[in-house]
């Protein structure tokens, strides 16, 4: 029996996660990805990666500090955050995250503190309030052996894998939203995180350190590699849906069927993805082109952020139970635009405060390898 | 005397071992995203609801009485009757289909294990509730519910949902929606009692009973009689009320404009 159905009456179901969530997922993904970029130069002490490590460490620390603030703001009852620690709930991914996040933050801060400490000790010998403050921050003139830095770095690295896992799993286990419910989502978060982190490193490199070509080149390679892998993952996800290998991905496609806006989003994603991959390849082919890396950097940051916006916000407008889609209008206040701008403002403030206090461009505490 | 002492020592040993083992075993047995142990409520009961769609006239008395009983904010609903206009494509005949929606109090509720602070939990009698003094308002449960049965209450800023009016059931009253249903379409009862109306009706109409979104594996405990399978999951329907837009494509004519 063929019939046409009109949904005459249904309530509007609101957005439950605000743009704060996008900000957190964006910041924390840049944080763990930029941490990975510090590994060869700082943790392994490879000379030709030290310039990259310096910029990446600044990006890591600033994003690690700001991410949790955005996360806290996404709670409707932020002052009750201590409830996480008063109720041991190891079966909840979000609770596991609440355990991992502070540990990760402490490890990252300790890692950066040890890396920046020799330069800050030197700075403390000068005059003025920055020198005095540096003296307090370094906690004395004793020499921190390299194993301490390696230990904190490894700790941060291990915790960062936990963050990658929990942020991905937390969203991917939500069966109720087929667009989220795929094991490819956590993988995609990591690859797009790497793209955005390398992009931000390129931008900071251009604006704060004089556009070091080596840093640009290494970051472009990360962007290129991550984009190729992300493309592969997207193709596998598509294949799972088209072949019906994954009923959930198939349901995800069905939920968007015939929607012109989502089709436009898919086409746009494909276009900017191909554009960034080709741009990175083109810039890497000739040395002179690397100076223009900031263009790729901007596009990379855009892709990293927009992917999270689409996944976390726009997917919430796909009705679970009723017909059609909800119209999400970005609120101008703190649960909308102000929150987004505020997070970026806070990040900029963190970046500038570190820039004022820490001589991060000087040599990091690395062994001779 | 000796046996008594031995028994007493045995009891103490069991208690001590039990006290030490219970929390550990409950943690060990619950893998990530597994259902935690149920707590509170009457373990001898399992509440469920049968919605007899043949008796539903879509009057929304349940929606209104629930709203008044549970003081949900304007625009948020613990229960609602979705209404559809169904047109036969060949004959042009038109029928109206009513679908009361509420929390399904699933046996495998996806909203419970996600809660990071154990604020939402399932009682021993199957009712899924939220302790809104513990809830941090992370809205993870809202995302996890496939039935859109949860929302963040804008007054309390915590998760809110249908509780089968547990506060009324616990003192021997019927839920507000059941009490106010003019057609007697909502039947609530103890499914563990084979003599209850719900148990008898479920048995009698066994082959015709349907649940919403069975593919989610949630084992809902709200059952529908007189249901059309095209409405079990997200219906393939035209969303009439969202299509009221002006020439610029902006939505107009909807009074709950906030997100």
TrEMBL record, chain A:
Q: Name one GO cellular component term.
A: plasma membrane
Keywords attached to this Swiss-Prot or TrEMBL record, sorted alphabetically, are: Cell membrane, Membrane, Transmembrane, Transmembrane helix
User: Which locations, inside or outside the cell, does it occupy?
Assistant: Cell membrane
Regarding the membrane, this protein is recorded as: Multi-pass membrane protein
Annotated transmembrane regions: 20-43, 55-73, 93-116, 147-167, 187-208, 220-239, 265-284, 293-312, 332-354
**InterPro entries from the entry?**
Electron_transfer_protein, NrfD-like
One Pfam family from the UniProt entry? NrfD
Question: Principal localization?
Answer: membrane
Q: Which family does it belong to?
A: Belongs to the NrfD family.
Please identify the protein, giving its name as recorded: Tetrathionate reductase
Q: Which organism is it from?
A: Marinobacter fuscus
Automatic annotation (TrEMBL), chain B:
Specify the superkingdom: Bacteria
Q: Where is the 4Fe-4S ferredoxin-type domain?
A: 47-77, 126-155
Kindly state which keywords UniProt assigns to this record, in alphabetical order: 4Fe-4S, Iron, Iron-sulfur, Metal-binding, Signal
> GO molecular-function annotation terms?
4 iron, 4 sulfur cluster binding; metal ion binding
Query: What span is annotated as the signal peptide, if there is one?
Result: 1-30
Has keyword 4Fe-4S? yes
Glycoprotein: present as a keyword of the record?
no
The family database entries (Gene3D superfamilies) matched by this protein are listed as: 3.30.70.20
Which PROSITE patterns does the record associate with it? 4FE4S_FER_1, 4FE4S_FER_2, TAT
| Protein name, UniProt field | Tetrathionate reductase subunit B
Q: Which organism is it from?
A: Marinobacter fuscus
